[in-house]
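Bit of a strange request maybe. I'm writing a small parser for structure token strings and I need a real example to test against, not something I typed by hand. Could someone generate the tokens for this chain?
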Amino acid sequence: MSFIEFIKTKVFVRHFIISVVLSAVLITVILTMLKGYTHHGDSYKIPSLLGLTPQQIQELTTIDNFEVLIIDSVFDSRQLKGTVLIQEPAPGSYVKKNRKIYLTTVAVLPEQVNMPNLVDLTLRQAKATIETYGLRLGQVNYVPDIAANAVLGQYYKGKSIEPGHELLKRSIIDLKVGKETGVGQYKVPFLIGKTREEAEALLHRYYFIIGDETFEDGADPETARVYSQSPSADQDEYLTAGQPVNLVYRDPEKFDFDEYLESLNTQDESQEPAEEYNF
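Reply from user aminoacidic:
Good idea to test on real output. This should exercise your parser:
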């Protein structure tokens, strides 16, 4: 009997029909079981957990169908410590039962890092290292030294800081950097009326340093302003880099700096040669 003749027999047809029916039944049973196992068609809305503490979350009944996991914490001074800052999936999403909700909370303390050793590095290398450690570069104070452009000291809040000391991330680090004397000449900036911080920053920009300081009127160094400077900011006077500029301060509460600056401007105008006004 040929194959064609065989598939036409009643025996083959009967067995074929039986196998098709059994396959359909088996597939239906499997799909029904999978649907029940995976909760097909069932979804639950994720509640918002933002701004809540872990203790508050545990008291919620709306999270019974989910598994909540805290995976990270970040410091944010604008947010309440210990509360949820980020959640994934986002609030309002629809997911299946027992889905994991991943939370990032606000750290109680900022992340800390160890102070690196910046001494003897170039300013460029030190800046890159500071950024790598998550710190910030503050003032760069230049001082006369043969080690030009090399870091001579590292400071935090005005005090020398040793390598390995723990600091909060994003702390500001000031550097003392060598500036070879006798290299380049610069005009002395006009400092009258500036605060001590402003005067120091301006001097460093021109590669000078603060020399002797005198505080008259019992002036507070935090609020005092420059009353006089030596050398003066003469238009024709240039000094070698690294030279000191001596400053005298007065209390702005006891001395009228606006009137004083105006009088200085008037003196400068009266001393200008007549030809300067030729048109």
